[in-house]
Amino acid sequence: MLQRPIREPYTRAGDWVQLTAVQGHRFFLFRLTPGEQLHTHKGVIEHDALIGLPWGSRVTTHLGVPFYVLPPSLSDVLRETKRRTQILFPKDIGYILLRLSVGPGTHIIEAGTGSGALTTALAYAVGDTGRVYSYERRAEMQALARENLALWGLDARVTFHLHDIAAGFHEQGVDALFLDVPTPEAYIAQARAALRLGGFFGALVPTTNQVSRLVAALEEHHFAFIEVAEILLRFYKPVPERLRPTDRMVAHTGYLIFARPVVAPEPPADA
Questions:
Q1: Which CATH architecture has domain 76-261?
Q2: Which of 83, 123, 137, 203 is 20 to 30 A from residue 90's alpha carbon, by CA?
Q3: Model confidence at 251: pLDDT above 90
Q4: Per CATH, is 16-72 categorized as 3.10.330.20?
């Protein structure tokens, strides 16, 4: 599994470790394996020297360069996801999880899978009692996503479908559904058929004209409480004497659209 509860204060063999540089915050993410070495441009560190240390310990490479031993966050894991396409950013994923009410026991559909970054976050969130149903048309992308999920020990929580969603989803009555496909407006009828009434729908598109088409399709298929959002993230330089924004920010990555499927209104009675 990605990470055991951090209540235990010491690292153990098999733990995922984030070795973070004191200067520059560069980090290396790896699993502690007895007898192995981590080779970096800053020097070599023996895995055995890290096993049994308290989390947060400061260590040095054979060249004397200092690092801190930390448990990785889910955000760090997603940043290290092996990718062939652009992945969703943690700033967007966090809001998606909240707006779709994803938690232990949730059953959620996503399409397409891509490199599996969102799949990883969903599988982490649904726990052992939930389920992620992930749809992808490209076999090579699905294979990469499977590899990424298996790396973090989360693949058992995911059902992968190699399937064109134009033909519909295999599941019905799921709690939530998220579309990250080029033309999500083309699949709203299929999404509605898979979602339980009152469930949670979400999608990501990169341009405003796509937003307009999607909103129109949602209204046509009796989705209500439609929300369109854009998440902008700006970091600050944490220097007390000259606190100010950093020179760069994570600005536009896409538009997020959320909605809820509701009971269709009765047609008006004939006069």
A1: 3-Layer(aba) Sandwich (3.40)
A2: 137
A3: no
A4: yes
